[in-house]
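Supplementary Methods S3. Complex input for the adenosine-5'-diphosphate-bound model.
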Amino acid sequence: MILQVQDLFAGYGETEILHGVNARVDDREIVAVIGPNGAGKSTLIKAIIGILKPSRGSIRFRDVEIAGRNPEDLVPAGLAYVPQNRNIFPSMTVLENLEIGAITRRPGWLHMGGALVRRYLPFLPGGSVGPKAPDPVGGTPRPVTGLRISEEEFRQRVDHITGLFPNLEPKLRQRAGALSGGEQQMVALGKALVLDPAMLLIDEPSAGL
Ligand SMILES: Nc1ncnc2c1ncn2[C@@H]1O[C@H](COP(=O)(O)OP(=O)(O)O)[C@@H](O)[C@H]1O
Ligand SMILES: [Mg+2]
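Predicted complex, serialized as structure tokens:
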């Protein structure tokens, strides 16, 4: 089992939306959450990824309690999230969007302005000095260097993503905003997949496809 949600309560201010939700996802399993508009599907995903703090209940990811943890701790731990509204930067290229997706594994770059620095100084080495990583979810502290993905690894991930979504291959250097709705959804998925997550949370996966 990779994820277990037990008796989860969450909402917005005084308004409780989730009233004791239970769910489990096994390794390599695809689970769909189905319900009418306003049922609370997006709220459940936001509570799991940590955008919304649950008021009660348990969320265990790989046997570690994560309820109330922040997304910036959960993404390095292997969770990825594709929000409902297409989460891309339209004025940046497809490749730059994928670089942004990889930035959480490049904390040094994040602190220096991330992709903007890389864009103007593409040959600057990554280096190994950097800020200390936040307390990792459920593990011994890892040095920042362990979180970093190399240029080589990034290129392999990009190849993997263009293998999954061949439409993107010839458009890597085009503005993401100029792509079709379905292609933009592929970019949003690619941004999440670039870190090779253990679990992918996709809100409305077929939107625009
Ligand atoms: N940011 C918010 N503030 C207050 N209420 C919200 C907010 N987001 C969603 N809601 C309410 O929570 C309920 C569930 O919404 P949501 O989880 O988006 O449903 P679904 O994704 O199943 O369509 C709805 O009644 C919605 O109006
Ligand atoms: Mg929704």
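Strands lie at 3-12, 15-25, 56-61, 64-65, 79-82, 199-202. The radius of gyration is 18 Å.
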